[in-house]
Fold this sequence. Notes:
CATH topology: D-Maltodextrin-Binding Protein, domain 2
Shape: globular
Largest sheet: 5 strands, mixed
Helix content: 40-55%
Order of helices and strands: HEHEHEHHEEHEHEHEHEEHHEHHH
Structural class: alpha/beta
Strand order of the largest sheet: 2-1-3-10-4
Number of strands: 11
Distance between the termini: 77 Å
CATH architecture: 3-Layer(aba) Sandwich
Number of helices: 14
Amino acid sequence: MSKRSLIAIATSLCLSFSFSANAQNYKIVFANYFGADHPNTMMMEKFKTEIESNSKGKFKVVIKSNNEAGGESQIMELVKQGKIEMAQVGGLIKEDEPMIAALEQPFIIDDWEHARKVFLSDGIEKFKGAYKEKSGARIGGIIVNGFREISSSFPVTSMQDLAKMKMRTPLNDVFVELFKSLGTTPIPLPAKELYTALETKKVDGQDNPYAMFDSMGWYEQNRYVLESRHIFSPTFILINDKWYNSIANEDKKIFDEALREAIDYNWEISEDGELDIIEILKDKGVTINIPSDEFKAQMKEAVKPVYNWFDKDVKGAKEFREYCEGLR
């Protein structure tokens, strides 16, 4: 064999070795605080399946649901610090970008169709503000927490009943202001402390979508639900921005596509599953009260001062209400 041929073979082997050595593999820790059978955890499973299959194993996803990696505030910080790659977080992200608080105003989302128009259209981008620049994490997409309902240890069918309630709220002054306006006594607590707070009667009730209420077992302590649908709460997919930018371009396409597929899946199963969860809760002995038109009107009237609070303290609040109104 000629010297030239030997050099060509050696060069080829070196290039092959170099390509193999430089091929990137990615480990993704994806955390949330939802139960194992919640649609948001099912979304994580869908993402894991899609990206691992489509990348032929280059991406490996480790799912940590149900507070395994910490509560909402902890996993948010872990993503920002780059200690984990992804997390699902609610309105708590307004700590870094206050404008995001505008997205959880009461009685501005009518139904599922309206929610899709609001949160899945390009118009939502400006209401994310400068979150990435301020936090070091990017919002990779918006999935469903859902329409929030009020659960309680006693029936709530009037404003007078609401006034009797010690209401657990998230660690979020938006909800404190809301439930003050409805006449309750707000008690902010992290979700991981809620079951014990209900069990010990520290609080009488809480507000969350049906899926969360069921998956976390809170129905064992609260046997009544008022279907108030007072807020539609989004959940945000956070991705550490430095890590995301380290992904090779061709791999980034695989990541983005898998995430889109999982987000679409989440919206589909969240909407389709809501009626099923209601029936499951009824079978478990939960009584669901639909507010009368008069009661619903009284709640909407009572929260009007909250809009003034939003407009004073939250940039873009009025603009977001107008945005939602324009999509009705």
